Write the structure tokens for this entry.
Amino acid sequence: MQMAGKDFGAYKPLHKPTWEKDLPVVGQGVFIFNMVRKAPFSIFVSPKLEEGVTGADEWISLTVDDHTATFREHHNGKTTVLKRANTLAKNGDYKQAVDYALRQKIAYWLSYNRDLLELKYGKGYVMTQTTCLDYGYIGKPGSLPETEEKSIRDEYKYLFSPTIRRTIELYDPLPRAQLINSYAAKILAAGAKEYARLAAIVAGSFGGAPMPVRTQLQAGVVEKDEADDLAKTLIDVEKQVQLMANPFVTNWAPIVKNSQCLSLDDLDSEKYTFSASLPDACQELYNNVLSCKLDCDSDPYPLSDAIEYSINTEGALLWTTLKNKDEFDDPTQIYLRVTLGPDRGKSAGIPYVLKIWPSQCGCPIHNHSNCYAVINFIHGAIDIEIFNKPASDHDSTNHIMKFTAHKGQQTWISPDWFQTHRLWNSTPSYCATIQCYQYSKADTIYWPYFDYVSDDDTIEEFLPNSDFTFHDMKRQVMEEYQAYMSGCGAPAVKERKRN
């Protein structure tokens, strides 16, 4: 295949872009391209002005090739490299390659901030840790004298003014026709027999119709690997593009704090995400589980003690259930799922689940199928690791952050935040969480599975099941514990209170 020359990205290509659209908000936004790449690409942002009008020829570009990522500007008739990153980008403990990943589906994102005059490029989730390249014209707010900042804003008004619309365009190194021919020629050179048929297959896949590829595959015209390559093209990219109205500035915090309990210090920090700022789907879940507790004053004994006894006593209900679990083919990747209420059809499985995590156990890396979720920690503590996408169970480079959540805290998940994670109980006691999920009302695909990374680093599907309903689990472990305590001669809680 003909590759891009060294000057690809140094000028705006003459051929039509692969994809283009106006920025959703005048002059700013985040654009996420979920693409399988075989070649470099460039993204151009330019004023939406008539040709020949002052400022119409200006642009800012991001070029990602097989070694580097580069921001450029074309301003006052001159093209300048603003900033370039080579090989690796490191943010804290997380690092990743800045170039495109050959034949891997990656989310490449560009944040264009008109107010801060700031550009950011990253891969995976849109986060500080995943940012590969950034450039600011004025630095942090207040870092320049007011007159100097105003001069810069005036100079770059066509690229950043809030009154001028802008267009974003994605370019491949070659126009569509040449790309089609180059792919077909490559297949032909590899020994394919019927050029015309293969050219039609390639043209079909580039036109966004994968059915011809599957049809020809079934007919034995092409091998599976060839058909997969043909299907992984970029031309039909519309459904793989996400547009976010707000540019990326900083991370949201994983721990939630009730907005009714905030202090001025809280408002001035970035330690928490405030409950009123959660997405609507998360707010509903948060409000429903916030006051839930494991122990109830009306019970004869604390349920938390009964669960501890049942987990640690050989032959008891929870001990036996855990002993027989092998969902993920790993004796340490076990936990109990105790469902609460009915399946209402708007989540992967029953929306409210009490999960019980034994000591030194956890779950594999998994995501929640782009749903919203809230986790309320009601007993003990557990470590939570957040991963970038795609995640590998044996590849620590995808590890973004780690924190420990304790009883009385809540965390949250959305399609764009903290979606891929792993929970692990490193404490000597068990942990109990209420985990609740639901899809957005705007979501049209309610996927019934959770996707997790298996031991051989393949993505597998897990259909959420139930070990017990809460009513049955509570009844049985309380009966076990009451019998044990009676045998020890210990009075029930109510009796102790009366005495």
